């Protein structure tokens, strides 16, 4: 019987692929964000509205993962956001390899910001690095203020938390302060924004955050 | 549920290690799974057992070291009062905000290999 002790990450193959992607995006000066949420929290609607507001100012691209259909890619393309759909056929999360293959196939050209819209799922996507600069978690006001502690994996990891569908606050029991407090307990540095893609509230702050992060990223990229 | 993907990656990690010729069968694997890793230890065990049920590593045991996250205070250090699955809002000692640390382990720690005919029961009795 031979025993080998060698501490290594179980997902090292994915993490190595993610590191390669990250280096590539660093070289190209592309800000990459991974959007994670439960199904129906408003990821696609957010990206549609973001593309309308920033699409003339920044070169945007998107890869979107779904278990089935290309509906999201169709919506985003109609909003003017170049998008490549990944149909996972059952996988509940994206990994670095499928993101890399999608980006290669998309031929976006030079991008300022690449959005990765993950499969709707608050659990599994948190475990997979995709070469992103940071993960963003969305939580809609219809989902309940107690979700952060129920999903500590993603809420402790995401650098930005977006509380979405703020226009519905008058109709639901959702205490924004309670949700914000839970998020900050899990990640004291997380930036929490309240917004609505429908009414526009909070969208300026969201776009400002993206611009600020893009400019910070570009400051590190080599001069072309 | 992605535990099958994780179990598959784990088996690949094991098979990539430099086992000696004649002892390439995985007999026992020890892993660390953190509270915040988004992996459920029991589901991982089930997925592992399904994965190795047919094939060269049949009977390979998976042992999981579950690692809780910690909450720490910059002034007072680790908060011992914290129970896994719950979160304190402020340091019970000085009232300062706390920081979450650890809990994101998802690591292969140790692999035991055996020869094709070697009995796995022998290794257990030695323990």
Question: Could you explain the architecture of this structure?
Answer:
Chain A has 224 residues and is of the alpha/beta class. Chain A is 37% helix and 21% strand. Chain A contains 8 helices and 8 strands. Chain A has a 7-stranded parallel β-sheet, sandwiched between helices. Chain A is globular, with a radius of gyration of 18 Å. Chain A starts with a strand and ends in a 6-residue tail after the last helix. Chain B has 127 residues and is of the alpha+beta class. Chain B folds into 2 domains: 1-68 and 105-127, hypothetical protein PF0899 fold; 70-102, no CATH class. Chain B is 26% helix and 28% strand. In chain B, α2 links the parallel β1 and β2. In chain B, α1 crosses α2. The longest helix of chain B has 14 residues, at 3-16. Chain B is elongated, with a radius of gyration of 19 Å. The model of chain B is unreliable at 121-127 (pLDDT under 50). Chains A and B meet through β1, α1, α6 and α7 of A and α1 and β6 of B. β1 of chain A pairs antiparallel with β6 (106-114) of chain B, so a sheet runs across the interface.
């Amino acid at each position: 019987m031979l025993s080998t002790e060698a501490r290594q990450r179980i997902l090292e193959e994915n993490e190595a692929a993610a590191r390669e992607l990250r280096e590539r995006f660093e070289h190209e000066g592309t800000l990459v964000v991974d959007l994670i949420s439960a199904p129906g929290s408003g990821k696609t609607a957010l990206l549609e509205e973001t593309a309308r507001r920033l699409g003339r100012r920044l070169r945007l691209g998107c890869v979107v993962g779904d278990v089935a259909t290309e509906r999201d890619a169709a919506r985003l393309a109609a909003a003017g956001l170049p998008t490549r759909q990944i149909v996972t056929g059952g996988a509940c999360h994206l990994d670095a390899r499928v993101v890399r293959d999608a980006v290669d196939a998309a031929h976006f050209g030079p991008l300022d910001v690449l959005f990765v819209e993950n499969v709707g799922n608050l659990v599994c996507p948190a475990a997979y690095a995709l070469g992103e600069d940071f993960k963003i978690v969305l939580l809609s006001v219809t989902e309940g203020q107690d979700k952060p502690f129920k999903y500590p994996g993603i809420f402790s990891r995401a650098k930005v938390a977006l509380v979405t569908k703020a226009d519905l606050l008058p109709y639901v029991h959702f205490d924004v302060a309670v949700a914000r407090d839970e998020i900050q307990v899990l990640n004291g540095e997380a930036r929490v924004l309240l917004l609505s893609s429908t009414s526009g509230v909070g969208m300026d702050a969201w776009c400002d955050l993206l611009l600020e992060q893009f400019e910070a990223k570009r400051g590190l990229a080599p001069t072309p | 549920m992605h535990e099958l993907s994780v179990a598959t990656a784990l088996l690949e990690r094991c098979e990539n290690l430099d086992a000696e010729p004649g002892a390439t069968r995985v007999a026992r694997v020890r892993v660390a799974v953190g509270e915040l890793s988004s992996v459920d230890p029991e589901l991982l065990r089930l997925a592992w057992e399904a994965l190795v049920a047919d094939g060269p590593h049949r009977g390979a045991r998976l042992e999981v070291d579950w690692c809780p996250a910690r909450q720490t205070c910059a002034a007072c250090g680790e908060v011992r009062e914290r129970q896994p699955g719950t979160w304190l809002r402020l340091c019970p000692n000085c009232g300062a905000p706390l920081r979450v640390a650890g809990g994101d382990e998802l690591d292969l720690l140790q692999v035991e290999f055996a020869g094709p005919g070697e009995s796995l029961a022998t290794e257990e009795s030695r323990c």
